[in-house]
Each structure stands twice: as C-alpha cells, then as structure tokens.
Amino acid sequence: MAAIHGREWTTSETALRLAETLLQQYGVNPEITLLLDYQEIQVLPLTNPDGRKWAEQGYLWRKNTDFPGGCTFPRYGVDLNRNHSFHLTDFFWCLI
Length: 96
Fold this sequence. Notes:
41% of the residues lie in helices and 0% in strands. By secondary structure, the chain is mainly alpha-helical. The radius of gyration is 18 Å and the shape is elongated. The longest helix is centred in the first third of the chain and has 16 residues, at 10-25. The protein has one domain (10-95). It has helices at 10-25, 30-38, 49-56, 90-95. The two termini are 22 Å apart.
C-alpha cells in the first residue's frame, strides 16, 4: 500500500517500480520467479486518491477528505494508517 498520506508522492512511484521489477524479472530471476509462483502479491500504488488531489492543489494534506460532519477545513479527514477504528465519534475526527 502506497500513498496512504496525500502529500507523500514518492511512495506511489516506488510501488509502481516494485511491480514493474517483479513483472520484468519473472522468468529471469529465479528468486522472483519462485516468489511469484507461490505467493499472491497485491500492489496498491495509490491508497488515498482524494487526499492526493488536495496535495496536488498545494495543500500539505496528509489525511483523506472524509467529512463526518461538525469539522471545519482543514481539520476534517482521516489519517488512514492511524484512525481507522470503527464507530469513532464526530468530535474525535475533528481533533485529528
């Protein structure tokens, strides 16, 4: 999973290069061939597309753009690698 934070642009490129290397080296590199023959690998190069859109507009946006209500810009959103718990209150969302 890459680009969990909207402003971290290089992680997407890293994930894409990993996928490219695995595909190019399959059948050439015995370790990669063995890995791909016996493991399922999923590469997600962009996990937070809405946060990335804000970052591309010049904001130092880290979170996604989920708007649970009660929050004002720029306090809303969820930091996807930290605040993923189920049924948090709207008040808590505004604090992060």
